């Protein structure tokens, strides 16, 4: 038997600190109400913002694609793994985002890894918001570029760093469009202004903005009217879009470069035909109507304002991601457990995902929630909050 004692010790420590998280296994499809251990629970932790995972057009597209193309693509994109359906998806994504080109990866995570590790070299500097997603951090770690971190959304610090970065060959400012743990929006207009002043590239990860922010869910660049001024827009196909995959929307020259450089693109089998077809159908749904997105934002404002009125701290939330800040990791997980007893699944998020004293239960509101659902959650929140002494 191998000696895994050091790993066991770490897990035991996580248990003592209330940070141990077994995988939750669901018995139903993704949706507003889901079944766990035979119990129906109100789902408030899914990224299925628009309920597209169960949309009839998407399901039909997937089934048709399986019948036409089979279940797998057979190889990486550069050998036999680019079917016409993959090509069409990239063309549609580019049109949707208003860019020259788009390149699809197997996930948002590998998109960030692939793009950042390809474009950054030892003579470059990457300047990253401290709360950027793990996939950005890992992508940066894969490069030999100089790394500078600025305090969350601190534009004075960003300017100071840019000012002292003139000697580098390329300067790349990287930010999430919507921050996944806090639900706040990056000050993209200010970032673009500074980048233009100091001749830097702007890279935005719109994982939580794709299908959520901007006209028809086109993302944060569209939301702020910054078309043509953001050089690299990363998106995911796994959250509001309802399937799985990631993409970068950019200029053709960058796409061509990534096709030759990005290792997750070059060395990992392409999306299944069903996934590509699902994503194409999702873009059609987004293009046809803003109705689901309008509902999503109305639900988010209703829920956030009521949570705040109860006296909870929702941090900087300004999107459908609504964290309720608790602080202590053990207390955070207790809060999440109490909500579970009430029939609500809202995930506790603790160190190391967030700082040790910034534990929170993160609620994600979707277009599928009814007002009755949200009121049900609010009542439970009030009871659990009082029980834990979080409310007066
Ligand atoms: N970026 C951000 C900001 C995210 O929240 C996520 C998802 N957790 C990703 C990238 C990765 O996307 P995907 O799940 O498609 O790999």
From TrEMBL:
Its cofactor is pyridoxal 5'-phosphate. The keyword Protease does not apply. It is an enzyme of class 2 (transferase). It catalyses: 6-carboxyhexanoyl-[ACP] + L-alanine + H(+) = (8S)-8-amino-7-oxononanoate + holo-[ACP] + CO2. SUPFAM superfamilies: PLP-dependent transferases (SSF53383). Its EC number is 2.3.1.47. The keyword Protein transport does not apply. Homodimer. Belongs to the class-II pyridoxal-phosphate-dependent aminotransferase family. BioF subfamily. Catalyzes the decarboxylative condensation of pimeloyl-[acyl-carrier protein] and L-alanine to produce 8-amino-7-oxononanoate (AON), [acyl-carrier protein], and carbon dioxide. This is 8-amino-7-ketopelargonate synthase. It comes from Paenibacillus ehimensis.
